[in-house]
Amino acid sequence: MTTENNLEATGAIVKEEDLINIKHKVMPNTLVLESSHPFPGYHGSNLPENPLPGSIYLVTQRKYDGDDILRAAKKIKRSFPDNFEASFGQAEINERIYHFIRIKNLDCFDCIPVMQKAFADEGIQFMKRKSVSGESLIKLQKFFRLQKIDNHLYKDLDDPLMYYFEIPEKPGWGLFKKITFYVRANVANYTFDAALGTLYLEYIIDMVRIYAKDMTIEQLEFIRKKYLYELAHPDHLG
Fold first, then answer.
1. Other C-beta atoms lying within 10 Å of the C-beta of residue 200
2. Tens digit of pLDDT for each residue in 202-221?
3. Cα(first)–Cα(last) distance of the chain, in Å?
């Protein structure tokens, strides 16, 4: 759904995070992961400090249809006390794929096993506990609510520190990492985390997601121009 300046659409985010086990306050013998640093490229002072659950990854026994997960979440929301956000996706850790339900906005860690039980009652089975940790390439399917603030620039309506800009096509993750490293090293006084994004409309929009404090439109446009140049001239990056 779109209005003149606002856009609502499904899409995807591809990002890297270090995931670690949650060993306590989960259903017995189940695998639950969390990010040890949810925005690894950002080193500013606005990272969450509240000791509440951030992004929680409930690892499922197999890949479930996304519609089934979202239907289960919709049903659970009717009686669950927290106004949580549920999405789904996969994480590649040490060359193995793990499928997950990602939960955000829980009020306490004690809510995690309650949330797991609610999904289990809807037929979702969880992977048995194992030791999993390390750098993970995550592909997350989610719902976006964006405000268009300029010709190729967007602001996230649900998170004031997130911005997006369009790019002509989606690069491979290795090239994107090189470009991001190069751009960060060549812009003064900017600290930001970057991820790849895709919006599914009647056509596909490829984007870069930027997480940063007090990002101005001018700064965002400057960073976008840097990315566009490097995407068009990748050879000098090696």
1. 13
2. 889 999 999 998 888 888 99
3. 41
Eight-state DSSP code of residue 160: T
Residue 117 C-alpha from the chain's centroid: 24
- CA 165, CA 225: separation in Å to the nearest integer? 10
| H or E element at residue 219 | helix 217-232
Single pTM value for the model: 0.88
| Domain 144-237 classification at class level | alpha beta
CB 99 within 8 A of CB 63: yes
How is the chain split into domains, by residue range? Answer: 13-137, 144-237
Q: Where are the beta strands (DSSP E) in 72-128?
A: 85-93, 96-104
Residues 6+ apart with CB under 8 A from 157: 6, 145, 146, 147
Q: Are 84 and 109 in contact (CB under 8 A)?
A: no
Residue 176 φ then ψ, to 5°: -60, -40
What is d(CA 100, CA 62) in angstroms, rounded to the nearest whole number?
9
